[in-house]
Amino acid sequence: xxxxxxxxxxxxxxxxxxxxxxxxxxxxxxxxxxxxxxxxxxxxxxxxxxxxxxxxxxxxxxxxxxxxxxxxxxxxxxxxxxxxxxxxxxxxxxxxxxxxxxxxxxxxxxxxxxxxxxxxxxxxxxxxxxxxxxxxxxxxxxxxxxxxxxxxxxxxxxxxxxxxxxxxxxxxxxxxxxxxxxxxxxxxxxxxxxxxxxxxxxxxxxxxxxxxxxxxxxxxxxxxxxxxxxxxxxxxxxxxxxxxxxxxxxxxxxxxxxxxxxxxxxxxxxxxxxxxxxxxxxxxxxxxxxxxxxxxxxxx
Length: 300
Prior knowledge:
The protein is 38% helix and 21% strand. The radius of gyration is 22 Å and the shape is elongated. The two termini are 16 Å apart. By secondary structure, the protein is of the alpha/beta class.
């Protein structure tokens, strides 16, 4: 049975991290877990600054008092409804990604809950995303929460409608186990979705030399049969639906989540390509970026 005993929630004390903190509190209460709340700052020391003009004096930006950061952490926890929790509050200086991963290892976290900032385009290309980089290196599942996700009150179990994208890779099969168990615990429904990535945007031309339409139908029916067998063998113990669609995988996953009013997407961190998490599966990456609900990413 899926049970989260030690939850790590890194926050940057911005409004966009409030949803992640609310989710972390929800899961901490539901599983009677230990919550560690972490924030990472560049440094606690005074920083030398210079205008850049020749001859100007070097100044010092004031240091950030650790006590102020810890007080801000406590305020954020209380505001999110976690005042009664015996949470561990931690403030560290350094690189955010390395510090979060190190903290997960040190606390033996079995779940990291963190927000995404929803950066797009050039900003994301230039700066990257702390959440995406942590996803490549974290030793445990990660629940990413977009800033616009609706979050219920911390006393409630959040996830009733779950979507599990399935490409039959080892990490996707692991994710299915998580999704089914979470649904059993919360009396939820799991939609298992397979997307056939098709090379044609439109219907194939009749002049093609082989039966493209028939081949596509063969792929769809084969995927449906494989999904049904997989779900039956898993003995789900909860309500399930199997869906097969045609299109771009990340687009269909995000659209299906919106259409079904999904509370949680549960998916593998590494697809069938097996290139490795150093490159991070593109479908998972794009779903984490675009999803309007939390995404639980599971390694194989």
